[in-house]
Amino acid sequence: MDFKVGDLVTRNSHNNDIIFVVLSIENDTCQLKGINVRLLVDSKLSDLKKHEGGDIEGEKPFLERIQNKEQLDRNDFFYLPGKILHIDSDKDFLKRCLDYYKDINIWAMGINEEEKNMSKNMREWLNKYKPNIVVITGHDAYYKRKGDKSTIEAYKNSKYFSEAIKEARKYENSHEKLIIIAGGCSSYYEELIRAGANFASSPKRINIHALDPAIVAAKMSLSDINKDINIKDILDKTKYGKDGMGGIITKGTMYVGYPR
């Protein structure tokens, strides 16, 4: 079967469980990117099957669920949600996240940057935009052949995420004053939490949805600054729940005012 850049495909060797778009083809090998999961892989053309269409990975019910608006009393009160700075190595996923924030009326600034460069510019971005919440995400992977799960060198980009978190914590040490959400598919969850993240992926080293970090950020933006969050409720809103994202109990970032 002939394949070309832009085709939607699945991998026979992985039971056709994830849908990818073909990014490039060289000889008998191509680079693939997950349509909905933050995953970059190489694959032999002989392992591919074209996706025939339809609801991609049961996406429609999930998107309908996360688009539900917060039930806020707008008759008497007004609300100031926390501001989000979203730093993402994947420009397509960044746009999806920014569109999501816009749809639910949250102020957000997006920056497209490679993982290895995030820590270098972190202080500059935080000084410029002064967010309440920063998302540090992109692509990652755990390679078993490179070491066990407690070896940071066994991960594609967890080291860079950790460095970026530490730079952000130099800017603001308090987990209450700056909420940090970090990681990609199969990231070194424990290390990212130790580095200073409030939320991180991936406790079970699984793939995460493109919108999972944004969902957590949005919930934190719309949670009362005077109240502890319901962490289980927030994680349950993500595609893969506590297997894909985890974190610490903290307070929200939204101020509530009266009268409207």
Q: How many structural domains in the coordinates?
A: 2
Main beta sheet: 6 strands, mixed
List low-confidence stretches.
none
> In which order are the strands of the major sheet placed?
8-7-9-10-11-12
Could you name the CATH class of the largest domain?
A: Alpha Beta
The shape is: globular
CATH superfamily of the largest domain: Response regulator
SSE ordering: EEEEEHEEHEHEHEHEHHEE
Overall pLDDT confidence? 93
Strand content: 15-25%
**CATH-derived topology of the largest domain:** Rossmann fold
Brief overview, please?
This protein is of the alpha/beta class. The protein contains 7 helices and 13 strands. It is 27% helix and 21% strand.
What would your notes on this structure say?
With 260 residues, the protein is α/β, with parallel strands linked by helices. The chain folds into two domains: 8-53; 59-257, Response regulator (Rossmann fold). 27% of the residues lie in helices and 21% in strands. It has seven helices and 13 strands. Strands 8-7-9-10-11-12 form a six-stranded mixed sheet, with helices on both faces. The longest helix is centred in the middle third of the chain and has 14 residues, at 158-171. The termini are far apart. The model has no long low-confidence stretch (mean pLDDT 93).
